[in-house]
Amino acid sequence: MNPQNTDCIFCKIIAGEIPSTIAYRDKDVVVFADIKQDVPVHMLVVPVRHIPSVAVLKDADLPLVGKMVAAANQVAREKGLAERGYRLTINSGADGGQDVQHLHMHLMGGRPLKWEN
């Protein structure tokens, strides 16, 4: 898979072509604020390498998913979410609610969360 996809909005954010509030960055993972702030804290945890969806992950990608969770946990602690709790969600495909075709995990918290459907 390509490290970057020139048509992907998340790849453009990672490359610094589109401004965003970056909360965490290392060589593999970037965490930035979601533009849809429907909860007090809504961050996106994104691999630097362009991967279209969780559905196409290979066994070799499993350490990357672990790094994504570790980055989410670190940001959750920094944002004061760890004590009361937070949600990590990965959507896959149109029916799963995936709007951007770049693997990403939502980190949400700051108030009690309920499932809408």
Write the element-wise H/E pattern from the N-terminal end onward: HEEEHEE
Low-pLDDT regions = none
Shape verdict? globular
Strand content: 15-25%
* CATH fold label: HIT family, subunit A
The first-to-last residue Cα distance is: 34 Å
How is this structure best summarized?
This protein has 117 residues and is an alpha+beta fold. The chain is 20% helix and 22% strand.
Reconstruct the topology from this structure.
Layout: H1 9-14, E1 22-25, E2 29-33, E3 41-47, H2 62-78, E4 86-90, E5 105-109
Antiparallel strand pairs: 1-2, 2-3, 3-5, 4-5
How would you portray this structure in words?
By secondary structure, the protein is of the alpha+beta class. It has one domain (9-109): 2-Layer Sandwich (HIT family, subunit A), CATH 3.30.428. It contains 2 helices and 5 strands. A 5-stranded antiparallel sheet has the order 1-2-3-5-4, with helices on one face. The longest helix is centred in the middle third of the chain and has 17 residues, at 62-78. It is globular, with a radius of gyration of 14 Å. The chain starts with 8 loop residues before the first helix and ends in an 8-residue tail after the last strand.
